[in-house]
Design a protein that fits this description.
By secondary structure, this protein is mainly β. Helices cover 0% and strands 51% of the residues.
């Protein structure tokens, strides 16, 4: 069984930055593809970024050039570094692991507002 816990969300000014973390209870990062998603109130959940087991990285157009996904396998940690944040980035951000099974974190709130 794997538990994913996101952290690092909060309130930031437009143009600011945040780094989100996703910590796994098990050593899954070498065997699972890791993803970040977000969901704003009243909207569908949106895929943001993926890092595969072979370290291939993909981004959604909405965040390409502003967000960076990375992982530290030794620390069982996934990260999303976010720069140049916009009000439309306001959402709950979720970590997702895909492999033999599928796991979601509980989410962390990011609010971009002046």
């Amino acid at each position: 069984q794997v538990q994913l816990v996101e952290s690092g969300g909060g309130l930031v000014q437009p143009g600011g930055s945040l780094r989100l973390s996703c910590i796994a209870s098990g050593s899954i990062f070498s065997d699972y593809t890791m993803n970040w998603y977000r969901q704003a109130p009243g909207k569908q959940r949106e895929w943001l970024a993926t890092i595969t087991r072979s370290s291939t990285i993909m981004y959604a157009d909405s965040v390409k050039g502003r967000f960076t996904i990375s992982r530290d396998t030794a620390k069982n940690s996934l990260y999303l570094q976010m720069y140049s944040l916009k009000p439309e980035d306001t959402a709950v951000y979720y970590c997702r692991a895909i492999g033999t099974a599928e796991y979601w974190g509980q989410g962390t709130q990011v609010t971009v507002s002046s």
